[in-house]
Design a protein that fits this description.
The complex is a heterodimer. Chain A is mainly alpha-helical. Chain A contains 7 helices and no strands. The termini of chain A are far apart. In chain A, 17% of the residues are buried. Chain B is mostly helical. Chain B has one domain: Cytochrome Bc1 Complex, Chain D, domain 2, CATH 1.10.760. Chain B starts with a helix and ends with a helix. Classes of the chains: A mainly alpha, B mainly alpha. Chains A and B meet through loops of A and helix 5 of B.
Chain lengths: 153, 134
């Protein structure tokens, strides 16, 4: 009985845990300065290490923008991303160039989002987590903290 | 040659310590004056640069594409949708306070929107406009 309770508790705890991805306390300042100006500081767990490596190797053309950083910074950020990367088996392929929004996990989690919501100017892009995930800046993606822009459902 | 080295060192040391938009404007103005005798920063020219449509980049034809028509307003990144804090010092005291950061964003945004590096004169004018606009 005790065991069953434990398993049940774990069952509740796990999904909640997966939606809580705050940046680690030792996140280098360069990560926030270089990777969180044009978009949210995406939790490293949202891509696999090999996909972060490809992303960091391709900063010269980062989705149309030259986002290159100096060699020392690149090394620091890459090491940080590798240390905290997600499990590639659970995320699924991120495509080429790697996109968080192409991973099977992202697609599964967002299958209920309508085309109208995606194209709303307040959302603008699937890269804009904060448009709906109010706690995204703190790494919180729980269902409870989802608020679609007014008029959308 | 020695004078040049001293001057560069002085500029670097100013740059490392500058903390106000006035100081940052002065760094660029000094650089511009070395190329153009009698240069003086102009907020009006800065505003013209801010509003100019370069139209080299579909998503970002002008500074205003992300920063809106008024630098006193918060903007929105035209690709990612992320909110962008106001550029004008009057609306956001954190702006133009870190020379390395200012230089980095001139570097990135001029390349992307203007299609080339901005000149020291353009940077001085731009900082003047952002410091003075109310």
């Amino acid at each position: 009985m005790k065991r069953l309770a434990l398993i049940t508790l774990l069952g509740f705890a796990l999904p909640a845990f997966a939606d809580r991805m705050p940046l680690p306390a030792n996140t280098p300042a360069s990560f926030k300065a270089e990777c969180a100006s044009c978009h949210l500081a995406y939790p490293p767990a949202l891509l696999a290490a090999k996909d972060w490596q490809r992303t960091m190797a391709g900063l010269k053309d980062h989705f149309g923008t030259d986002a290159t950083v100096d060699a020392k910074t690149a090394q620091e950020i890459t090491a940080f991303l590798e240390r905290n990367a997600g499990n590639s088996d659970r995320l699924g392929s991120a495509g080429e160039p790697p996109r968080i929004t192409q991973t099977a996990r992202f697609i599964r989690k967002h299958r209920e989002v309508s085309a109208k919501t995606w194209s709303d100017p307040r959302v603008k892009s699937a890269a804009n987590c904060e448009a709906c995930h109010r706690g995204a800046a703190n790494g919180s993606f729980s269902e409870r903290e989802i608020t679609l822009p007014s008029g959308l459902k | 040659m020695k004078t040049l080295a001293t001057l560069s060192l002085m500029l670097i040391s100013i740059a490392a310590h500058a903390e106000t938009p006035q100081q940052i404007r002065q760094i660029y103005a000094t650089e511009a004056a070395a190329q153009q005798t009698g240069f003086s920063p102009s907020a009006k020219r800065g505003e013209t640069l801010f509003r100019q449509r370069f139209a080299l980049n579909d998503k970002m034809p002008a500074c205003t594409s992300c920063h809106t028509d008024s630098p006193l307003n918060a903007g929105q990144h035209s690709v990612t949708g992320k909110s962008v804090k106001a550029l004008a010092v009057a609306a956001n005291a954190e702006r133009f306070a870190d020379p390395a950061k200012v230089e980095k964003w001139f570097g990135r945004n001029c390349k992307e929107v203007v299609g080339r590096a901005c000149t020291p004169a353009e940077k001085a004018d731009f900082v003047a406009y952002m410091s003075e606009v109310r």
